Amino acid sequence: xxxxxxxxxxxxxxxxxxxxxxxxxxxxxxxxxxxxxxxxxxxxxxxxxxxxxxxxxxxxxxxxxxxxxxxxxxxxxxxxxxxxxxxxxxxxxxxxxxxxxxxxxxxxxxxxxxxxxxxxxxxxxxxxxxxxxxxxxxxxxxxxxxxxxxxxxxxxxxxxxxxxxxxxxxxxxxxxxxxxxxxxxxxxxxxxxxxxxxxxxxxxxxxxxxxxxxxxxxxxxxxxxxxxxxxxxxxxxxxxxxxxxxxxxxxxxxxxxxxxxxxxxxxxxxxxxxxxxxxxxxxxxxxxxxxxxxxxxxxxxxxxxxxxxxxxxxxxxxxxxxxxxxxxxxxxxxxxxxxxxxxxxxxxxxxxxxxxxxxxxxxxxxxxxxxxxxxxxxxxxxxxxxxxxxxxxxxxxxxxxxxxxxxxxxxxxxxxxxxxxxxxxxxxxxxxxxxxxxxxxxxxxxxxxxx
Length: 451
Description:
Layout: E1 6-9, H1 13-26, E2 29-35, H2 42-46, E3 49-54, H3 65-74, E4 79-81, H4 91-99, E5 103-104, H5 109-116, H6 118-127, H7 143-153, E6 157-161, E7 171-173, H8 179-194, E8 199-203, E9 209-217, E10 223-235, E11 238-244, H9 251-267, E12 272-280, E13 286-292, H10 299-306, H11 310-319, E14 335-342, E15 354-355, E16 358-360, E17 367-371, E18 378-379, E19 386-394, H12 397-410, E20 412-414, H13 420-428, H14 430-434, H15 441-450
Parallel strand pairs: 1-2, 1-4, 2-3, 4-5
Antiparallel strand pairs: 6-7, 6-8, 9-10, 9-12, 10-11, 11-14, 12-13, 14-19, 15-18, 16-20, 17-19
Helix pairs in contact: 4-5, 12-13
């Protein structure tokens, strides 16, 4: 069985570049799609072919299913890799690819649907004995239903969008007087963001760690997990710094959460790459929260400690090959940290698009850079502000931190502002160095500065 001859990448930016590199190493031709704003982007230059699929507005280009499938048809592409964001977790798109005779490099449409319905995913995994955060058994549709759940689990609680992600449609309630207003605000926000106003309720833990398990599954029913990533450093529910392994997990707990992820993947008959996300309360009890049915932004930290190319595995299992590794062969070594470099003001956190006048990427031992930047390129205001991911690997956590600090100090990006000063502030904080921090860590740093 041969691999695909040609793959279309239905994405842009650094992830499109990352996928093209994996395809080149596998001897697969690539097709880049691009909007008018991205005509000079790096992924367009690196691909074997490139097709414009519409205007700068993503709804008319990177979210345009018809245009993307037409590009695949014109170029005789056998498969489509969606990357992350855009259409990567769109079951309708995955189904449309399959109906067009094109392989979708990702999980099945049914997997994506369940992953997108967080309330349903909770129900399924709870029945399989996997611990979930105490909360509603499904969506709550009225204030009366909300009060009933709250009486059972107590305040504070958090409203979450069933179809949500990225922190949108999430609201915390500390007081009974806030229930009605907060419920309707979260509902409106979810409807505006996802076209679906369904909410479910979870107990809100003020001090938590955010832990995710990377899994890969083939079509033969084999599943492996590649350990955990600690994604606790967040701002407004958006991850900023990720690391692997987690500084707080014991070997016993690591094994337990890994087994939960495998059990969950088997229960869902999961295929391809995915991430099962958990939180740990302040006593390190794990609770499942959601599934990400795509490659994650932070996948490089897992690649660095496992020496497994997750994108290549995605492509191979999508073609029908069995996994190239067994669980017993997964050996995690060293420590890796990823910093997301965003085009934004480091103090106001407002976007900072523009032209890159000068660029110097860091190098040296243990440093990896995933980016679409080059000197003279344009950072567009139309898309996500992520412009580069710096990944530092060390023999241990302290060496990884030291290498990351060196790399960020060496990075030069002129013409726009970046969040590098803020990233350095986090890395130099004593609580981060000790590994003693929670998801409110960034908020605490900022509030201390204001005081």
